[in-house]
Amino acid sequence: MVGTFAFERLFQHGGDINSAEAAFPEAPRPWIDLSTGLNPVPYPVPALDAARWARLPAPAEIEALQAAAGARYGATAPRVVVAAGAQAIIQWLPRLFPASRVAILGPTYSGHESAWRAAGTRILRAPEPGAAVVVVNPNNPDGRRLPLRRLRELARAASLLVVDEAFADFEAETLCADSPPATIVLRSFGKAYGLAGVRLGFAVAEPEIAGVLREALGAWPVSGPALEIGRRALADATWLAAARARLEADARWLDDLLVAAGFALVGGTLLFRLARRADARAAFVTLCAQGVLTRPFRAEPEWLRFGLPRPGDRARVEAALRGLQAAV
Amino acid sequence: MVGTFAFERLFQHGGDINSAEAAFPEAPRPWIDLSTGLNPVPYPVPALDAARWARLPAPAEIEALQAAAGARYGATAPRVVVAAGAQAIIQWLPRLFPASRVAILGPTYSGHESAWRAAGTRILRAPEPGAAVVVVNPNNPDGRRLPLRRLRELARAASLLVVDEAFADFEAETLCADSPPATIVLRSFGKAYGLAGVRLGFAVAEPEIAGVLREALGAWPVSGPALEIGRRALADATWLAAARARLEADARWLDDLLVAAGFALVGGTLLFRLARRADARAAFVTLCAQGVLTRPFRAEPEWLRFGLPRPGDRARVEAALRGLQAAV
């Protein structure tokens, strides 16, 4: 029974290695976690002064991080809101900007629908005039991209437009630099920088909306270490360029393996690849049995999403995928 | 102008050393921060595995921290909610448990009133039947303590009772072990453990209320390091007993100095002392000029709150207070 419950949890969110271990107790360890869209080579966490843990984050430190994020994303500091992960903002949006209807352009990350549903908002599958709209861009899990022009059209007809740019760090376009009125752009720190455990994310919006979000999140929205790590990482353009080059090479390597293993490529970003195969659910289980956790989707049984492995895990991933190929 | 704005900020929250530096640019550095109620000798942060920063916190890790907090506070794990600081919960309460009126038993920590006011709730100074009630116990800044019997009476007449036990770690009584229905007890990690920068706090409530809070806070409410640091610290009874003994001695030392400097003791806890003096505002400025930041209160010009200094800062604090004495 424990195993069944743990197995079901693997369809909810990526990254739940404990449940994978419980569901597949005989799989070789350590597990290789390809179930998330995190950069597998994290930004190196700097040595932290002990005072970072001890004292309350000061307003000036939060403002410094707003400025660093603004410089990175192309927005002015007053438009940037600091939060303990983009999820913390997603949780607040339906309460701060209530709507009777919200169109969530799916299939996409389930956290948006959960938050709006908890607030009693009716969920639509396509935009309707006057309803709020949520777009993940590029989309998770299929990598669908809407051009800025289309996003501006959506903003004009919507009561509120939420554009979740959680996976936009390596994209050519962002709405942050010039977001329309009544638009909230979300940015995630943990994914591109491979530091999801830091819990750091941002909203970019016109100053009035930004002020409402800041008031809701309170005076100390993130930890002292998150302020320091975020400020340094976001200013480090050299590291980001090197990360992009490595991820491009890794994504090509993974795509080739997936095709060789009988998958069709659906789409993706540099942080994850979505692949289709008629027996994807069986492939998920086969990979789990080898200690490789990927991301299945309850509503799309032919899909599997693959994050990129750490360099040291490539050989095991390659062997597991070649094993699948043989099973075709 | 910058100096005036910075000076005003010192009345909003403790811990804002940047504003103190801006308001008193000629004060000797480093500043000694007595403006908060934090243990000045923090729990030692353990060496952290790099994976704590990199991966998403897993559900089982959050459940382990719930259990550790429950064991420490005397509550079962299903009644414990994990958050990035008690403030994160305070921000949510008026939205999740809306009330037309809330009685906040003041003067007390201003964060409660700000949050309820932002949600449009009418603020009362004394309980009324059917209104929500907020009590900080022991109270900040005056150390007022309500007995459990009185809290149970309040709970019976209130639509919701919030008991903020942010400073209760060294108290004989807590409501956590047996909280009445429709009661939410808040606990802070950062104060007693001297780790406010970690951002960790808890709610203790009946399981149904706890579930509502957990859903609002989302799947990853705190950082990976906070999960590890909190779990270890909360299980370390030896450290907490030693901290109590040291704080008791330090509080006696500070009380003696305050009385010698012409203050009357109003009350406090082992983490802060409230003192009264007719010219407390002038004393605040005099102490700032020596790089010692205390906590003034806009509405109570005769009050100053003193946190306890780090051992290495005792001599400077003693000299600054003896200087005040001479000025009487």
Give a structural overview.
The structure is a homodimer of 328-residue chains. In chain A, the strands form three sheets. Chain A has a seven-stranded mixed β-sheet, with helices on both faces. A four-stranded antiparallel β-sheet of chain A has the order 9-10-13-12. The mean pLDDT of chain A is 96. Chain A has helices at 2-9, 17-23, 50-54, 59-73, 86-96, 110-118, 148-157, 207-217, 224-234, 237-260, 280-289, 314-327; strands spanning 32-33, 80-83, 101-104, 122-124, 132-136, 161-164, 183-188, 201-204, 264-269, 272-276, 292-293, 295-296, 303-307. Chain A has 328 residues and is α/β, with parallel strands linked by helices. The first copy, chain A, is built from twelve helices and 13 strands.
